[in-house]
Amino acid sequence: NAGVTQTPKFRILKIGQSMTLQCTQDMNHNYMYWYRQDPGMGLKLIYYSVGAGITDKGEVPNGYNVSRSTTEDFPLRLELAAPSQTSVYFCASSRTGRYNEQFFGPGTRLTVL
Amino acid sequence: AQTVTQSQPEMSVQEAETVTLSCTYDTSESDYYLFWYKQPPSRQMILVIRQEAYKQQNATENRFSVNFQKAAKSFSLKISDSQLGDAAMYFCAYRSGSGGSNYKLTFGKGTLLTVNP
After folding, report:
1. Is B101 in a helix, a strand, or coil?
2. Looking at residue B101, what is its pLDDT?
3. What is the mean pLDDT of the segment spanning A69-86?
4. CB neighbours (10 Å) of residue A54?
């Protein structure tokens, strides 16, 4: 049981490039989330999904897209990377229901130059 | 919208001593959860302790306990017998109890805890 895995761990992008951050969970969780953590700040929600085929925007969705074709995978797509997207990105998942905690992946550190 | 405030950017404690980290929050909801997460240099987010708003009793997990003051909207974390491994960034987080919020977490900015040997 690997929990929540994220790839890559680190990435440097040039301005205007695109990339996909991968997230996979093996706990059969319905809910999945993408957060970003800027230096000296807490995590902010980018997008979330309540199940395969269903996604919605969080607090800071601009510049990102997501898809959820399976329960396990929730990739985050960056189109036309900008320096403001330099951050650490965390994926998390949880079971449905009010009592269930979120489990976090190890994060991806992204730098846009 | 809910907000979470951690007023102490940094704290330090001597090994074996006790330290308290502060957190206040703002909400109009009556049904919610509060959490403390630990983030060591490895970046992994680790749940330390959780508190359900409808429970008056303060949560405890081994050396970690909370002081939950619902009326004051305060949720502090006390670490007893501090250990070197407790050194980390600590985040306070809020989650609505309503499924309509999709259970997203709202985080404070964090408190960096240093443990001195």
Report:
1. helix
2. 56
3. 96
4. 10
Q: Which of chain A's residues have a Cβ under 8 Å away from the Cβ of B91? A: 42-43
- Which of A37, A46, A54, A60 is the best mutation test for B, with the most CBs of B within 10 A? A37
CA gyration radius, chain B:
14
In this structure, the strands spanning A87-94 and A103-104 are: antiparallel
Q: Where are the beta strands (DSSP E) in A1-113?
A: 4-7, 10-13, 19-25, 31-37, 43-51, 54-57, 64-66, 76-78, 87-94, 103-104, 108-112
Q: Is the model's pLDDT at B99 over the cut of 90? A: no
- Is beta strand B88-96 parallel, antiparallel or unpaired with respect to B32-39? antiparallel
CB contact under 8 A, B91 and A42: yes
Bridging pattern class, strands B19-21 and A108-112 = unpaired
Between CA B39 and CA B91 the distance in angstroms is: 8
**Are residues A10 and B77 in contact, defined by beta-carbon separation less than 8 angstroms?**
no
Which tokens hold the place of B108? 């404070």
Whole-number Å distance between alpha carbons of A48 and A37: 15
